[in-house]
Design a protein that fits this description.
This protein has a six-stranded parallel β-sheet with strand order 2-1-3-4-7-8. Strands 11-10-9-12-13-14 form a six-stranded parallel β-sheet, sandwiched between helices. A two-stranded antiparallel ribbon has the order 5-6. Helix 1 (about 30-45) links the parallel strand 1 (about 15-20) and strand 2. The chain is of the alpha/beta class and about 400 residues long. Helix 3 packs across helix 7 (about 155-165), helix 10 packs parallel to helix 11 and helix 13 crosses helix 16 (about 355-365). It is built from 17 helices and 14 strands. The chain is about 40% helix and about 15% strand.
């Protein structure tokens, strides 16, 4: 697969194979959305793109699926991208292999492999570096998955066993075979480098908002907005518990904690909206005083942050989320360091004057054109390097 020859730097119409295991539709996944958006953006740039996919929704129809997935995750052997050789890609861009693709096929590809990081799965069975209400790096620090089994970090102890058995940390083929590794933030890149990923392979390239979804900034308003999955690592329960009763808060999203969130929110000025479409969510952002991002884990990026800036809406975030570091660097909101009520009072004074600046930051960093320029550079460098290695090896 792939052609190791002279590369025309001015020609971007080469073939890109995108490999992705789509998560179940029962669990809302921004990752699934991002993969489709990137494929569309690459086609607009002139690349010939084909997505090679495995779908959990489809595979779950088989009664043998739990066993098949467990064996794939534990051994690295399993489904490979069908007809990849026939497509003859110049670049293979891998987003997610877990849990439906094997990994061993990566070792036998001739084309350069670009791996996009969306979480910390190679280093952490849960993929989040988060356990029992705190950041946890036990497995990565020890380079042993025994803690993951002991604590049942992936859907309980039994389900954690194959995930733990399959972990290779920095020797994971997903990382080891890659010509380039794309991280969503400097924080994510630094964490991977600290646990053994080759620094020279790491590139920072955040997500983008497709032009067709951009409706410009809004005027703001009185209510605050949370948008995202209702799960422990997102910090949604502490947010609802600490939220001042007199302030209006809208919660858009669904997840395993939805019933608990609704129970705790009773009696407060909080409205739980459930699942909300992306365009509707962004409309809510344009009318919000601020967006709250209470995530408690080393989130790779946070699509909600980028969407809030597009709406001209400042963001209130908590450590150690990557959004807290974005806010410090870009001046696009505030980081909660004490009482939430105090932070909200301070935001009442500072957030209205930040709206135009937030939009400017979005324009500078999160347009599709910025991502396109970055990914083209990564692809071209990987092809050049791969061609040189192939010529040297021959």
């Amino acid at each position: 697969m792939g052609t190791a020859g002279a590369i025309d730097e001015g020609n971007i119409s080469y073939r890109v194979a995108i490999v992705h295991s789509f998560y179940s539709s029962r669990v809302p996944s921004g990752e699934n959305v991002v993969v489709q958006q990137q494929a569309d953006a690459l086609r607009r740039l002139g690349y010939i793109v084909q997505i090679f996919a495995q779908s959990t929704d489809r595979r779950e129809r088989s009664k043998l699926y739990p066993l098949e997935a467990a064996l794939t995750v534990a051994t690295g052997w399993g489904p490979i991208p069908q007809r990849l050789r026939d497509f003859n890609p110049d670049v293979i861009h891998v987003h997610n292999l877990f849990p439906n693709f094997g990994k061993q096929w990566l070792l036998n590809t001739a084309a350069p492999v670009i791996s996009s990081l969306h979480n910390y799965r190679p280093m952490c069975a849960a993929g989040t570096f988060y356990r029992d209400g705190r950041v946890c790096t036990d497995c990565a620090d020890r380079k042993s998955s025994l803690p993951a089994i002991q604590h049942g970090c992936y859907k309980g102890r039994i389900a954690s066993v194959p995930v733990a058995l399959g972990q290779r940390f920095d020797r994971d083929p997903f990382l080891a075979r890659s010509s380039a590794i794309v991280a969503l933030s400097s924080q994510m890149s630094s964490i991977y480098a600290s646990y053994g990923a080759t620094p020279q392979k790491l590139h920072v390239l955040p997500h983008f908002l497709p032009d067709e979804l951009d409706r410009g900034s809004g005027p703001g308003g009185r209510y605050w907005l949370y948008g995202g999955r209702l799960s422990h690592e997102k910090g949604i329960l502490p947010l609802v518990q600490e939220w001042p009763s007199e302030r209006p808060l809208l919660i858009a999203g669904q997840g395993e904690l939805e019933a608990e969130v609704r129970r705790v929110a009773k009696g407060k000025n909080i409205k739980v909206l459930g699942a909300v479409g992306r365009e509707d969510l962004m409309a809510l952002m344009r009318g919000a005083a601020g967006v709250v991002f209470p995530s408690r884990w080393f989130e790779g990026f946070g699509l909600v942050y980028m969407e809030a800036l597009a709406a001209g809406t400042p963001v209130l975030a908590w450590e150690p989320s990557v959004v807290a570091s974005f806010i410090r660097d870009d001046g696009t909101g505030a980081v909660v360091r004490g009482l939430l009520s105090d932070a909200l009072e301070a935001a009442d004074k500072s957030f209205p004057s930040m709206r135009s600046h937030c939009r400017q930051v979005f324009e500078r960093k999160y347009r599709e054109s910025s991502w396109a320029e970055g990914i083209r550079g990564i692809y071209d460098a990987a092809r050049k390097s791969n061609a040189s290695v192939s010529r040297f090896s021959s």
